[in-house]
């Protein structure tokens, strides 16, 4: 289904954004920057081509981290295909913190996966 799949990001839901940023920047030495989004503050850093995203939100086991696959467009088509195959959609296609689009769904073991595309990519191919 995914053509040339790439993991573009790993999203961590964190209880305390400041505490997590201290750990990832001071303990691990990763460059991370904070941002203000439509749902409040969040942070992101790059490790090579992989983005690490930190969103302050309580989570249960299995909800974090979320592996995010990058799309070059067609997110609504992927959402339709997942639903047609009986995949449980956790969060339907919605606006991502940076203005792009994402959808969250479960794998057979209940792990959250996500698809993401930039805002300027077509939602249908």
Supply database-style keywords:
125 residues; eight-stranded mixed beta sheet; VOC family protein; Glyas_Bleomycin-R_OHBP_Dase; 2,3-Dihydroxybiphenyl 1,2-Dioxygenase, domain 1; alpha+beta; Glyas_Fos-R_dOase_dom
Describe this structure in words.
The chain is of the alpha+beta class and 125 residues long. The chain has helices at residues 17-27, 75-84; strands at residues 7-14, 32-37, 40-47, 50-56, 66-71, 89-95, 101-106, 112-117. It has a single domain (7-117), classed as Roll (2,3-Dihydroxybiphenyl 1,2-Dioxygenase, domain 1). The chain has two helices and eight strands, in the order βαββββαβββ. The chain has an eight-stranded mixed β-sheet with strand order 2-3-4-1-5-8-7-6, with helices on one face. InterPro entries: Glyas_Bleomycin-R_OHBP_Dase, Glyas_Fos-R_dOase_dom, VOC_core. This is VOC family protein. It comes from Luteimonas galliterrae. It holds the Pfam family Glyoxalase.
Short description:
The protein has helices at 17-27, 75-84, and strands spanning 7-14, 32-37, 40-47, 50-56, 66-71, 89-95, 101-106, 112-117. It is of the alpha+beta class and 125 residues long.
CA-CA gap between termini: 13 Å
CATH class: Alpha Beta
Can you tell me the CATH topology?
A: 2,3-Dihydroxybiphenyl 1,2-Dioxygenase, domain 1
Cα-based radius of gyration, to the nearest Å:
15 Å
Gross morphology is: globular
The total tally of domains equals 1
Give the ordered list of helices and strands: EHEEEEHEEE
The CATH superfamily name is: 2,3-Dihydroxybiphenyl 1,2-Dioxygenase, domain 1
- Based on secondary structure, the structural category is alpha+beta
What is the number of E strands?
A: 8
On the 0 to 100 scale, the average pLDDT is 90
β-strand percent reads 35-45%
Helicity, as a percent range:
10-25%
What summary fits the major beta sheet?
Answer: 8 strands, mixed
The number of helical runs is: 2
Report strand order across the widest sheet: 2-3-4-1-5-8-7-6
Query: Uncertain spans, ≥5 residues at pLDDT below 50?
Result: none
CATH architectural category: Roll
Domain VOC: 6-118
InterPro entries: Glyas_Bleomycin-R_OHBP_Dase (IPR029068), Glyas_Fos-R_dOase_dom (IPR004360), VOC_core (IPR037523)
Pfam families: Glyoxalase
Protein name: VOC family protein
């Amino acid at each position: 289904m995914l053509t040339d799949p790439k993991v573009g990001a790993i999203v961590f839901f964190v209880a305390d954004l400041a505490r997590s940023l201290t750990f990832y920047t001071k303990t691990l030495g990763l460059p991370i920057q904070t941002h203000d989004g439509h749902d409040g503050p969040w942070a992101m850093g790059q490790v090579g081509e992989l983005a690490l995203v930190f969103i302050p939100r309580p989570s249960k086991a299995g909800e974090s981290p979320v592996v995010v696959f990058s799309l070059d467009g067609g997110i609504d088509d992927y959402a339709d295909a997942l639903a047609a195959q009986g995949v449980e959609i956790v969060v339907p296609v919605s606006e991502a913190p940076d203005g792009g689009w994402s959808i969250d769904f479960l794998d057979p073991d209940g792990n959250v996966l996500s698809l993401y595309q930039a805002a300027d990519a077509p939602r249908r191919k």
